[in-house]
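User: For a reading group we're discussing how well predicted structures match intuition. Take Glutamine-dependent NAD(+) synthetase. Before you show the prediction, I'll give you the sequence so everyone sees exactly what went in.
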Amino acid sequence: MFLPRKRYHQAMSASLRIALAQLNLFVGDVAGNAQRLIDTAAQARDELQADLVLFPELSLSGYPPEDLLFHSGLRRQVKTALDRVRQETSGITVVAGYPEYADEGIYNAAAVLRDGATVANYRKQELPNYSVFDEKRYFKHGRDTCIFELKGIRVALLICEDIWEPNPARAAKANGAQLIVVINGSPYSLRYQERREAAVRARVKDTGLPVVYVNLLGGQDELVFDGGSFVMNASGEVVQRVAPFVEGLFAVDVDLVDGKVVPRPAHVEPPLSEEASVYNALVLGVRDYVGKHRFPGIVLGLSGGIDSALTLAIAVDALGAERVSAVMMPSRYTSQWSLDDAAAEARTLGVRYDVISIEGMFATALDALKDVFAGRQPDTTEENIQARSRGLLLMAISNKTGRMVLTTGNKSEMAVGYATLYGDMAGGFAPIKDCSKMLVYRLAKYRNSVSHAIPNRVIERPPSAELRHDQKDSDSLPEYDVLDAILELFIEDNLSVDEIAARGFDRATVGRVLEMVKRNEYKRRQAPPGVRISDRAFGRDWRYPITSGYKSKI
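Assistant: Thanks. Here is the predicted 3D structure of Glutamine-dependent NAD(+) synthetase, as structure tokens, for the group to look at:
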């Protein structure tokens, strides 16, 4: 939608205050999201004296709404909610993202509202259809530039992917825009803030226009939205950056001087370390998954190993100790070290801690199967019976208490199938599912740098599933530093056996690892969702066939 151009005066000077609403919204809760917008707009007007408030992409429906968009009930609710926001906000201009239903299809849109009227409406032009995004399944492409005027400043409105491509911003500049505002639903992955700012810097270089960027916050299934809203001036410098993983309303001041918009410098939040960034994403993902599903709390199996120790710390930081229960389930193979370390972790973090032996269940199962197993040597079958005994106990506790089971497996294990279906994979959510084993160690050390939560021995001793005598993970897998490096080249970079071997890895080891990844796709399809922190997580990002004749070793 175009508004008529004004004639500018060389000496024109004006100021505009913009409120960035970095909010944690709820997919599908259209009425609740509408109320958040109404309340936040009033706060921006009364407390910040803002002229304009920017809400994230699809803020009314929540992002991503996925196939809810096809439901006629959502369509009716969105219309009612948008009418409410329009009628119940005044004294401030509001930019609200919403799905716009038209005769020809659905648009990812944003409405510019002021005092009961729709000042302008914009339809997203660039629709991402890669990685976790499949917007072309749902939305039609918008075609038109949207510029609205506020306090003498001509503001162009874009939505998320529009800023990653050159044409929408160039068209805005060509049509007289002096400032670009972008509303976003940009999910977290490691180092992604750098890429967001690089993309915006490229558009600033193209157009010479400053950009105000607001991003969504919160966990939604596998995705975490980290906020990190920012302002970039016409020289490509970040002059204001909001803290990531923090909900809030933040004021941005811009001045119009001699026809050019100049953002005022404000607080620039320094970037987090990689470990702090990932840890915050995991905490937020767990908090929102448990909270938005209204579980009273969680229960997890605490083995005395590194993975469950880190998961316990994440759960406590996300939910508070009173909502977390830990259960140690020893067998004949559980070491005294594990018993001592698990008890120490639970005591340090202040959670309920129960010890329930699986020895009786394990022995009973072996006795029941002795005739069927006669003449066959013990193997992973007996190991899996132990894991499934533990899964049975945890699910029983979950059923009885209403607390959801958190699983504790990491990405390295999930990649090669070093996990038991209906055993340690049984649960509702998998916090460290996308964290490699080496990253788990880094995160544990980071968490201990904040306050000591994980015994040093857990971090230092060789990892073991303790499902047979003197077992170590390295009996079945390459050392984790080697395994993780191979997996990253395959999963993130899509390299072949020969290409990975050319990087200096043993070709037989590479072939074995890639075959394990292929062979265990059926397990990953049955795994619970977990927080995505990489560019290629098992889930939305990973769509390999279960049944395949592809030979990775050729």
